[in-house]
Amino acid sequence: MIIHKSKYTEFIKSEAKRLGFLSCGISKAEFLVQEAPRLENWLNKNRNGEMSYMENHFDKRLDPTLLVDDARSVISLLLNYYPDTLQSQIVATDAYKISKYAYGHDYHFVIKEKLKELLFAIQSSIGDVSGRAFVDSAPVLDKAWAAKSGLGWIGKNSNLLTQKVGSFYFIAELIVDLNLEHDNATTDHCGTCMACIDACPTQAIVAPYIVDGSKCISYFTIELKENIPQEMKGKFDDWAFGCDVCQDVCPWNKFSKANNEPLFNPNPELLSMTKKDWKEITEETFKVVFKDSPLKRAKFKGLKRNIDFLQ
């Protein structure tokens, strides 16, 4: 059986590489003992703001065996989204800023297809394996599993960081009922650096490794459905959808490399839009330009609200 575990693990990691994933790590499917009190404390302090869905399925977030019967392994995967061209390189400072992950196609669909293909390859080569794919839209603590499987460490900005490529990547999982070789967690390399904490425009990083989600620009511009609080006026630094500040200032992101996923290629129209273009955008244009974009999450109404708030 040990021979099979080794062979299966090697096969899965080579398939993940073939499908374009940046890296693949595997951990034992078990209750996340250390995460339980952290999550409970975070929720008790209302750091999820109006993201009430974070309170749902508390047990499932911590125990993968409640998501997949007889789960044995959590396969964590990273997919690079760092773009080859940035908004700032095209329109300099004359644009409302969009988070880099939203430059191209909606990652949920892109990654889900890759995960389906990976699970199919596992089932075709190994046999009767049951599993489920997860991409950021289910009660799974992505960063905790990725860190547990050695793909990086959770930094002071609460993002998963790696020494080789920084943090501009998506995290996804396959939870399977297959015994595999498990990877070991890596060490923390944030050291005494406080760049992300010092740079956060809204002081959302309330302490090293603790982010108050209800103060984050990404929360205000994407998750919040009501009006943005007036006390935040002038603090958004022109971010209209999401925010990359704590990643942009992170020294490890000096090592970010452009992704190799064609569907993440920046939408040229988005990159060339000036503040004037953003202000004048119509709902019809929004539907055409952002048809397959993560910006649909905010909807036209939400985007207009954000832009009006920035003026």
Task: Pick out its properties.
alpha+beta, two-stranded parallel ribbon, 13 helices, NADH Oxidase, 2 domains, four-stranded antiparallel beta sheet, 311 residues
In words, what does this structure look like?
The structure is a single chain. By secondary structure, the protein is an alpha+beta fold. The chain has two domains: 2-83 and 102-176, NADH Oxidase, CATH 3.40.109; 195-310, no CATH class. Helices cover 35% and strands 13% of the residues. The protein is built from 13 helices and ten strands. It has helices at residues 2-18, 35-44, 58-62, 87-91, 107-126, 142-148, 195-199, 217-223, 245-248, 268-272, 275-280, 283-289, 299-310, and strands spanning 23-28, 73-80, 97-98, 131-134, 153-154, 160-161, 169-176, 205-207, 210-211, 239-241. A four-stranded antiparallel sheet has the order 1-2-7-4, with helices on both faces. A two-stranded parallel sheet has the order 3-10. Strands 5-6 form a two-stranded antiparallel ribbon. Strand 5 and strand 6 form a beta hairpin. The protein is globular and about 60 Å long. The mean pLDDT is 93. Residues 181-210 form the 4Fe-4S ferredoxin-type domain. It catalyses: epoxyqueuosine(34) in tRNA + AH2 = queuosine(34) in tRNA + A + H2O.
